[in-house]
Task: inverse folding
């Protein structure tokens, strides 16, 4: 029973990791760049969510969960625009500068975004307004409890991921995205405006990440400016675990990491969950450097 | 007026002066071939025309319009399609998705795309049999067919083929060249880069011989086939 309970909790956390991991993996796909700023964009989702909710509730004059809906849209668009801005300013000028320079630039952006959040919102823990998230839930057979909030989180994450998957695999622009991640020049020869596709990736990845920040903050209730770094690094591990550059891989990697971490914390002690997460990362790097779903099809000679 | 006119084209890779003043023309309906050794500038010429590299100097006029310096995706829209060398298909996309990428500039025009796909499948029935397979799982010959078929999906007026025979078995080379001829007979102008000079000159109307970034010889393909220098340098005769 305890196992099932931990599994439910693990899947919830895994869904967060998966949503954030998608941003890492999509950017890596098209630019072969680890966008270290992604975790902090995610964190900005939490902060902008706080601002948005405060404003929305003040305007309404009373507390209702429906206030979350316009805030979701506000957070998604603003973090998406931040993502596009980061790409324009910090990555595009370095497009032909090799692999290292953009990564350093990404680290720089990460620190800037983090300091900015601390300076704007302060270093103290922030708490979301009370009474926004539904309480209550279900008790399944064997006494396993699933809260209504967990169900909402899982349904929302699933819908976002399914939508992304369909977009990438069923639409013209999605196919172009996969083509660009294989070869920029050949994609250009097909008539694809590669810069535009990269921009779309920087809209979708941070957009999803921002919403994930909002959902995480709603779920836990409070956070501070280190959220991006800690959570972002975990999501990055999840992306590597699933095979970076691979979208279903990021979803799988996120879920697995969430489950393993939670089981480890439950059966050993919560202090050990980061140790477990990073041991997993090292083991993957040693035994399966391409990740679980990475690069299964042979490339051309 | 020629479909494609190139005047005094200079292209650099960093400090390397790769094209040193190329002049060439392609008339509507022709097959024109560029032959020459490795490093002569054949691929660079195609990459400059298709907009992957910007020339430092010179003019490229396609259908009366200057296109040098335009981004590659705009040049495709004008009706030039470049099938790159080395069978650069999208290996983790299916054959169908590869073809759809070739029709990217047509947007959502499903009818035209379907019609173009029909023509490609007519030329390469093999691709239809394998349409749901991943590109990377095709044989070398099939990948070359996909490279050409994909380039035809946008129904270009000028098709530029880079080394379509590279690494293929002799029998397949023959098939590919027959298909190139057929594509031309269906009304597509072709600029063909080849190391297999004999095969290329046999199907071409005219040819240019490139050496270290310059055109050293040009003329009707039949004359080049008979030319002493060409026979010695490129046709392996002594």
Result:
């Amino acid at each position: 029973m305890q196992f099932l309970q931990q599994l439910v909790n693990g899947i919830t956390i895994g869904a967060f990791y998966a949503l954030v991991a998608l941003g890492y993996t999509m950017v890596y796909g098209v630019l072969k760049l680890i966008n270290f700023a992604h975790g902090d964009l995610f964190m900005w989702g939490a902060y902008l969510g706080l601002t948005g909710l405060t404003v929305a509730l003040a305007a309404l004059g009373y507390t209702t969960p429906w206030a979350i809906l316009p805030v979701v849209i506000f957070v998604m668009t603003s973090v998406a625009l931040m993502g596009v801005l980061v790409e324009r300013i910090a990555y595009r000028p370095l497009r032909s500068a090799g692999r290292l320079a953009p990564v350093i630039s990404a680290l720089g952006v990460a620190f800037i975004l983090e300091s900015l959040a601390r300076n704007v919102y302060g270093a103290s823990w922030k708490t979301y307004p009370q009474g926004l998230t539904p309480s209550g839930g279900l008790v399944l057979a064997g006494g396993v409890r699933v809260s209504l909030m967990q169900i909402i989180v899982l349904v929302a994450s699933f819908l976002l991921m399914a939508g992304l998957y369909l977009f990438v695999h069923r639409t013209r622009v999605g196919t172009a995205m996969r083509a660009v991640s294989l070869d920029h020049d050949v994609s250009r020869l097909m008539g694809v405006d590669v810069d535009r596709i990269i921009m779309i990736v920087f809209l979708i990845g941070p957009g999803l990440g921002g919403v994930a920040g909002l959902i995480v903050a709603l779920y836990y209730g409070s956070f501070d400016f280190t959220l991006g770094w800690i959570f972002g690094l975990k999501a990055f591990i999840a992306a590597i675990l699933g095979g970076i550059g691979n979208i279903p891989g990021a979803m799988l990697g996120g879920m697995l990491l969430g489950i393993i971490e939670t089981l480890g914390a439950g059966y050993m002690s919560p202090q050990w969950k980061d140790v477990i997460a990073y041991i997993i990362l090292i083991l993957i790097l040693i035994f399966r450097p391409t990740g679980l779903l990475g690069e299964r099809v042979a490339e051309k000679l | 007026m020629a479909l494609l006119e190139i005047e005094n084209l200079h292209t650099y890779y960093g400090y390397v002066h790769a094209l040193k003043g190329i002049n060439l023309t392609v008339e509507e309906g022709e097959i024109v071939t560029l032959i020459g050794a490795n490093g002569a500038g054949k691929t660079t010429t195609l990459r400059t025309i298709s907009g992957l590299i910007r020339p430092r100097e010179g003019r490229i006029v396609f259908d009366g319009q200057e296109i040098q310096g335009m981004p590659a995706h705009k040049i495709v829209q004008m009706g030039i399609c470049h099938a790159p060398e080395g069978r650069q298909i999208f290996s983790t996309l299916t054959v169908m998705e590869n073809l759809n990428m070739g029709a990217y500039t047509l947007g959502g025009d499903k009818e035209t795309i379907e019609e173009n796909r029909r023509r490609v499948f007519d030329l390469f029935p093999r691709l239809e049999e394998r349409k749901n397979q991943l590109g990377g799982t095709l044989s070398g010959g099939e990948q070359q067919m996909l490279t050409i078929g994909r380039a035809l999906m946008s129904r270009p007026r000028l098709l530029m083929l880079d080394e379509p025979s590279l690494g293929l078995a002799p029998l397949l080379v023959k098939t590919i060249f027959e298909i190139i001829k057929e594509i031309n007979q269906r009304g597509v102008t072709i600029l063909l880069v080849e190391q297999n000079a004999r095969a290329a000159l046999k199907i071409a109307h005219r040819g240019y011989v490139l050496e270290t970034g310059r055109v050293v010889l040009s003329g009707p393909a039949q004359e080049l086939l008979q030319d002493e220098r060409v026979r010695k340098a490129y046709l392996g005769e002594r």
Remarks:
- The radius of gyration of chain B is 17 Å.
- The beta strands of chain B are 4-13, 16-26, 31-36, 57-62, 65-66, 80-83, 158-162, 189-194, 206-211, 214-220.
